[in-house]
Design a protein that fits this description.
Elements lengths: L11 H4 L15 H5 L9 E4 L8 H18 L1 H24 L6 H13 L3 H14 L5 H4 L4 H10 L3 E6 L4 H7 L7 E4 L13 H10 L6 E5 L2 H10 L3 E5 L13 E2 L3 H9 L2
Length: 272
């Protein structure tokens, strides 16, 4: 059985000492901790964000845009209303995220707020979201998944790491569509009743750690948004790696960055 790996030691390419003042400060952590954060603690599990991390978001958006355009041609009036609901649903999540409300039922509140914004019933919002957020993207996901995704998950689990996902949206069907369900032990979403609030609220990260049976400080969280994934995971006490999409976050030194999911395996092997 796997005994854990000390992944993030003070290697120059990840945690150079000159970066210590740019690392997030946590209560009780000294300067030496920040210069070499939790180097003696072994990583036993990895939790992944889903959207934009396990698959490329841009090609999925383009595919969904094509589907919406085709639907618009056949039923323009109905689709105009659905597009308004989709925009309001997305906006509602960002409003709730910014509010930082710490209570369960985040997804229910999102639907209610979106219904109010769009001036439609919550049942209609639920139907549109089910179709266009949860069902329609599934056939497109296999073509959008990141290169080597299945091999990365297979290798990480083979090295004894417990793997999980935490997303703001329910992810079970996406994980199935991406072909990695067999390697994922824990799935958590902000819609779960035991999760209070959307990312970066820390309860979802803590819930994932509890379900994995691993201390948060022994978990690495891999996401693509420093201000959401990085902030929330760090607040929960997890190590963080940000998937740097084409250098978009190259100037954000708050968290270590990787250029591909394959680098996670390389880091594990390097420090095993």
């Amino acid at each position: 059985m796997y005994g854990g790996l000390a992944i993030f030691r003070c290697e120059p390419n990840l945690w150079d000492s000159k970066d210590k003042d740019r690392l997030p400060q946590s209560p009780g952590h000294s300067d030496s901790d920040r210069a070499c954060p939790r180097s003696e603690r072994r990583i036993e599990g990895i939790v992944f964000d889903v959207d934009g991390t396990l698959y490329h978001a841009l090609p999925l958006r383009l595919g969904m845009t094509a589907l919406l355009a085709a639907a618009m041609l056949t039923n323009p009036l109905t689709m105009m209303e659905k597009l308004k609901i989709i925009r309001c649903f997305r906006k509602a999540q960002e409003v709730l995220r910014s509010a930082g409300t710490a209570s369960s039922g985040s997804c229910d509140r999102q639907i209610l707020l979106a219904a109010k914004m769009a001036a439609v019933s919550s049942e209609m919002v639920t139907d549109v979201v089910s179709e266009w957020f949860y069902k329609r993207p599934l056939p497109l996901l296999p073509r959008c998944r990141r290169r080597g995704l299945q091999e990365v998950f297979r290798r990480l689990q083979g090295q004894g790491l417990t793997l999980g996902v935490f997303s703001d949206y329910p992810a079970e069907e996406k994980i199935e569509a991406l072909g990695i369900a067999q390697w994922v032990s824990v799935l958590v979403s902000s819609c779960d009743p035991d999760v209070s609030g959307f990312k970066p609220h820390s309860t979802g990260f803590v819930t994932a750690a509890k379900k994995m049976g691993i201390d948060p400080e022994r978990i690495l969280y891999v996401g693509d948004r420093p201000e959401v994934d990085g902030k929330g995971a760090a607040a929960a006490g997890m190590e963080v790696a940000i998937l740097d999409r084409g250098g978009l976050f190259s100037r954000d030194h708050s968290y270590p960055a990787v250029n591909s999911l394959k680098e996670i395996v390389e880091v594990v092997n390097r420090h095993g």
